[in-house]
């Protein structure tokens, strides 16, 4: 069975075509600047020398998906001969609200329900649905499946997801913690259990998805007990451009001082904060690390603050689960920054965390990086959200 996995942003689209008989990636790519001057498709295929690049105007997601499918079936760079070989399409949907605790076939009712919670993810859900509508128009007879970022976190109990706000805000508007990156947290949880030779139900795992967007989850015996992101992806850790946890009173204070409206302060917290706002250098942690190595005080402070927040969540989640058996690092920063993993695990011996410097000297590879005698196993696992989406799509398509 061949599954096309789509991840649509407001002006971008990532895709993979996966053969689920052996879970191999037949081809993959990225479309950027959809609806903007300079639209471009970058297509890759195993054995292909370099990337196949198509620069042509793409006015909307339907245009972009048409170009994706043309590349997928292209005689020279494609992976299949005919679109009929695509058996199902799996779509990443960011927000499913409380309605979806698992993936779902995209019926008219499911699409309406996704639209109903789009005000909780106004930057993401409408873009995700553009991809759904485009695929339905181009591949009308192919099963379409929604895989939700929020679904894995729906096992959180009320004591975890409720805020200290009037209860009516929850019942009327759904104001509660939802959590994100759920597909990634679920994948690395399952992979960590495999690597340790145990079932997820036998482990207490803290999963650290550390990228430009970042979140941590407490996975207690296979189920999410808590996670750092909240109603939106703004809560939790300091990120590339997001502020993470702050005193809520800062918002009206800054609004008055800077004469900002709601959109202005939202932009400030989501787009102008994080390590970018703290340093004025970049939202890319590699740039921040370079600056810190050259003695930039703001960069040093930003990295130290970031590390402190990650440590705080690991400690809190260990307390919440009455212990921890494994800590997992994943996503761009978690997979590739040797120094960041080492600094986060430093002085955590009281929890039973001991990192092996030699084993930790690795990037982007499934590896146990803790010492042999470390009570808590520390793992590096590259995330694979596309594969998780494909697996769920196959289950539902069948």
Automatic annotation (TrEMBL):
Coiled coil: none annotated. GO terms for biological process: acetate metabolic process; acetyl-CoA biosynthetic process. It is an enzyme of class 2 (transferase). It catalyses: acetate + ATP = acetyl phosphate + ADP. HAMAP family: Acetate_kinase. Belongs to the acetokinase family. This is Acetate kinase. It comes from Peptostreptococcus russellii. The lineage of its organism: Bacteria, Bacillati, Bacillota, Clostridia, Peptostreptococcales.
